[in-house]
Specification:
By secondary structure, the protein is an alpha+beta fold. It has 13 helices and 19 strands. Strands 6, 7, 8, 16, 17 and 18 form a 6-stranded antiparallel β-sheet that branches. The longest helix is centred in the N-terminal third of the chain and has 38 residues. The relative contact order is 0.13.
Length: 470
Amino acid sequence: QSSSSLKTSYEGWLSSNGLSLSPFHVRWQTGLFNRLFAKWGHWNPQFLLRWFNMGMVFGVLAMFGSIVLLAKTLMQTLSQMMSESPEGSNEQVLQVVVPGVNLPVSQLAYFFTAILISGVIHEFGHGVAAIREQVRFNGFGMFIFIIYPGAFVDLFTTHLQLISPVQQLRIFCAGVWHNFVLCVAALTFLLLLPFCLFPFYYTGAGALITEVVEDSPASGPRGLFVGDLVTRLEDCAVRGVEDWHSCLKDISHRGQTGYCVNAASIQHGRGNSRGYRRLDGSMECCSNNSLTDVCFSYSNNLESRLFACLPARKTIELSQTCRSNTDCQKDFVPSLCVFPSLENQTRLIRVKHQPQGDMLFVGYPLHLQYAVSLTNFVPRYGFLHFDLPVVIETFCKYLVSLSGALAVINAVPCFALDGQWMLSSFLEATLSSITVEKHNRELLGFFILLGGSALLASNVALGLWMVTAR
């Protein structure tokens, strides 16, 4: 008896607080915001009518556009599955995101916050549009499904069924419309961020290092440090993070950069070296196991392929870059263009970073690229922290991606998504005079929904396979 009364009181407490619990699902609903929704729903009716008419047009276009986008994404995924290398996956507009796999755990807070805000704005659109169309608004709520947060609005179904198909379409399209507006607003703010932060941060001077991965090739006493400003990679100028990535990409695809070195220094290094060939065919001429010496190849007027073991920092630090001996004939001192003799795809990269001396990196450019985190924003004052622009920029990017994705996915004519109701209202509004029988319109809608659901499910299943199994 006591157990039964305890269960009854517990269920009563949950019900009185608007809470409901089920496996993997927690749901909360309240009427606290009803007046706020009513205020917005009755504000400037003519403006709201134009606003939601624009949303209706966007929603219909997005419904058909999402099918095209999903079909294109599916074709790209299938072509990647059949290819040996997964190149081109970054070109896809839609990608499946799995926390801890292709979403860093350190950025989960951005991810879940952006999802929650996008969901709230989405449901806010539905709620205001419903009140505008005289549909009773019962309440607003939020939920957590497994680990993913979301929001919902509770509308009176009978009222919703009594209004015209065009009115229904305005309500059903309002969610994806508001997600699209949020996406555009976040993207605009992201583009204007340098101007908004101009009094406190400046850009265009280089890429500021905000994090160096511990024990990475970029760490160490002669490596990169948090707060350093990278201004050049070899002969490639770095004015921001985009230049950093493009310079490293260019370095990895082109041949190794050469350096102009005094001919006398080369002769001294050549006398102390004896070469042997590595497994990949490249030449090694430093046999003293030194971590500071590197084997360089060069040519003179008599021989086309010579080698010399030279101290890397002393050889490179004050040298100008070159591609041939002709580039080194600007001074009266006889100099030759020497190239590091390294294993295939390995590069020697000189990194200029203020206020430290140059860092010399030997390895794969991709390893250097992922060893550091950078930002375009450099503080004007010492008390300002460089993490603030990074947080704002990262959050805006997540908001753009996730709000845009919610707009696309919810517009898909698929069972249990907004697209199902958008399609139904659209067919009723456009085909009722052409196809008189309602059963035929419902049958057409069913087959479209079946195709849209299959297309979305295929994208999700193959996307998950590409992310986790490949």
